[in-house]
Specification:
Layout (H helix, E strand, L loop, with lengths): L3 E7 L8 H13 L3 E6 L5 E2 L3 H6 L7 E7 L3 H13 L5
Antiparallel strand pairs: 1-4, 2-3, 2-4
Helix pairs in contact: 1-3
Length: 91
């Protein structure tokens, strides 16, 4: 059985998940070595490693998104991605 972890996180970037924070997040998700999805509210989850999918969520400052990671390192991956999402990259 594959390990799975889920975490709900509040967006910390003042301008939301626009190009720069979305790129940092998608790149980290791609390099994580685990399958990661992200969903906003009750919306459908998208591939967290796809910058276009991440931007398409339209996540703004203060919005909550739900991350799901699968794999042995799921919790560690979510720790890293949570830190990226809660940091204000626009400061």
């Amino acid at each position: 059985m594959t390990a799975q972890a889920t975490r709900t996180v509040r967006i910390g970037s003042a301008n939301g998940l626009h190009a720069r924070p979305a790129k940092l997040f998608a790149q980290a998700a791609k390099e994580a070595g685990a399958a990661v999805t992200v969903a906003k509210g009750s919306g459908a989850p998208v591939n967290a490693a796809s910058i276009l999918s991440v931007i398409s969520l339209g996540a703004e400052y203060g919005d909550y998104v739900t991350l799901t990671a699968e794999g042995e390192s799921a919790e560690r991956v979510l720790d890293t991605l949570t830190e990226l999402l809660t940091t204000d990259h626009d400061a």
